[in-house]
Amino acid sequence: MMATANPLLLPLNAALWQETLHWQPSDRQQEQFQRFYGAVLRANQSINLTRITTATDFWEKHLWDSLRGIAPWLLPRSSPWGASIQRVVDIGSGGGFPGVPVAIARPDWQITLLEATQKKVRFLESLPQQLGLSNLRPQWGRAEAHQFTYDLAMIRAVGDLARCCQYGLPRLRPGGILILYRGQWTAPEVNTLNALLPRYHSQLLDVQDFVTPLSHAQRHCLYLQRT
Fold first, then answer.
1. According to the annotation, is 217 in a ligand binding site?
2. Strand 202-211 and strand 150-156: pairing?
3. Which of 47, 129, 131, 159 is deepest in the core (most CB within 10 A)?
4. 115 annotated as ligand-binding
5. Where, by residue number, does S-adenosyl-L-methionine bind (predicted)?
6. In CATH, what is the architecture of 24-226?
7. 187 is in an annotated binding site
8. Per the annotation, does 117 bind a ligand?
9. Could you tell me if 68 and 219 are in contact, meaning their C-beta atoms sit under 8 angstroms apart?
10. Contact, 92 vs 116, CB < 8 A?
């Protein structure tokens, strides 16, 4: 009888990582991804963290998609837009996306996971020990009340464009960068963003459009900088 593949084992997809992001995880990072997947599945039985639970979908829609946003910083010795990154915040982290995959890929960055739902925060608080991540700091609270400033902020699946700018841009130091993970990017949104940026003393650095490597879904990442 032929052995069947373990449905709870994440695919390695080393060639896809390298082809699409010019990066691939080390053995330790792959193990941390696997532990994270297991932790999410266990917690998901009692907390609504995600509807994406199969190993292949989790790899593409949570791990790969999270790291696509920081692709400019995955290249060796890269410093896009001259930004020096140490302090990072994931606003509305939910189940830990994109902050936990980013913390795994960039252990030299200090990542705050900011989340307003206490049950989700308790789950996030279990991750540093489970995954062996000393650079991960879950925190309960809302973005508006959070007084710290960061080199880099990330927002994924939180709300409309105006809300994302309201939550993210004031959390940045001058020169800091906000990454917005978006699906479609439309002409009306361009107009909305152009009206919002002066209010927050910010500028648009880049809009990167791409398709996901397995399901070929259209996605965009926006990079905004506080001036």
1. no
2. unpaired
3. 131
4. yes
5. 92, 97, 115-117, 143-144, 156
6. 3-Layer(aba) Sandwich (3.40)
7. no
8. yes
9. yes
10. yes
